[in-house]
Amino acid sequence: MNHNYHSLKDNPTHQISILLSLFLFSLLAVSFLIFSDTPPLSNELTAASNNNDPLGAALAAAATADKTLIIAVVNKAYVEEGDWPTMLELFLDAFWLGEGTRELLDHLLLVAVDEISYDRCKFLHLHCYRLRLPPAGDGEEKVFMSREFIGMMWRRTEFLGDVLARGYNFIFTNPFPRLTTTRTPDLQISTDRFDGNQWSRSNPINTGFYMVRSNDRTISLFRSWYSLKDNSTGLKEQDVLQAMIREGRSIRERLGVRVRFLDTLYFSGFCQGSRDIRAISTVHANCCRTIIAKVADLRVVVGLWKRFRSNATSVDDSAVLANMAHVACANSWK
């Protein structure tokens, strides 16, 4: 990991370093290891050294000296939908609001799934990559569990599998020190509601945030996961992975993949909020149906975070947490 990650870990205030972890608009920190002999999941990606490989060039441009970077996936709705600030603006602002996170902006790669979001990325002078979606997959907001939403989630899974097959580890949201950096476990994944046991397969997972190490086991996992796409009509990729984890012969027994489930105390979300604002590393806009609702409730989180940060010694922590009610997201299901 790069020096930014270590400085966060060594900083006694890192527990209150918040980046907004957005469902469908997530971060992905990737660390280069050794290229796998296993070919990519699709034919889109070739070796990073190939001059005809735009993804390889984009990864190299955004990476640190030790080849670590952050990737976020964005579409038109995330750069245009709703009143100011947009989802993208909230996301970028989070790097400035977090403790010790500003330098990470230099290593952010935006993966745009349509021309409007790609043009916006270029206008902001960020590192950008254009990811192609299946026909009718670009553009407007993909409402939760719509056919287009499910298709985009599977395309995201395929893309991340391709990245993994290149020999990259990735953190699918942000690089904070609550994640284990040893060689085990292979997969660390967020939960909608944490059951108290970080190794329990009963935890309901959320694929908006996870860290995966590149090895033969995890590459096989992503291949097996993606191969179930056409036999999982009406299910999103998260549901399929959840079933793979919980089934009788779990992915550990079948593929040797060791999974750690992340505590919502640190990786907070709208499904189950943290009990301690001083422990939070991320806030995830899960359990929310529309982008407008996500933006509305994340704006509340940002406001509360600014207030807390300016007077952290005297603020009533319980009052701050109580005000994170996520009213707009709750109403988005009505």
Structure description:
It comes from Linum tenue. It holds the Pfam family Nucleotid_trans. InterPro entries: At1g28695/At4g15970-like, Nucl-diP-sugar_transferase. The chain contains twelve helices and eleven strands. With 334 residues, the protein is an alpha/beta fold. The chain has an eight-stranded mixed β-sheet with strand order 5-4-3-2-6-8-7-9. Strand 4, helix 5 and strand 5 (127-130) form a beta-alpha-beta unit. Residues 1-40 and 42-50 have low confidence and may be disordered.
What is this structure, in a nutshell?
The protein is an alpha/beta fold.
Largest sheet: 8 strands, mixed
End-to-end C-alpha gap:
43 Å
Number of contiguous helices: 12
N to C succession of SSEs: HEEHEHHEHEHEEEHHHEEEHHH
Helix content: 25-40%
Number of strands: 11
Unreliably modeled segments? 1-40, 42-50
Strand order of the largest sheet: 5-4-3-2-6-8-7-9
Class per helix and strand makeup: alpha/beta
Average pLDDT figure: 76
User: In angstroms, what is the radius of gyration?
Assistant: 19 Å
Shape: globular
Strand content: 15-25%
Keywords: Membrane, Transmembrane, Transmembrane helix
Organism: Linum tenue
Protein name: Nucleotide-diphospho-sugar transferase domain-containing protein
Transmembrane segments: 16-35
Helices and strands in order, then pairings?
Blueprint: H1 3-10, E1 19-21, E2 27-32, H2 54-62, E3 68-74, H3 76-80, H4 87-97, E4 108-112, H5 115-123, E5 127-130, H6 147-165, E6 168-171, E7 187-191, E8 205-212, H7 216-227, H8 237-246, H9 251-255, E9 259-261, E10 267-269, E11 282-284, H10 291-310, H11 317-322, H12 327-331
Helix pairs in contact: 4-10, 6-7
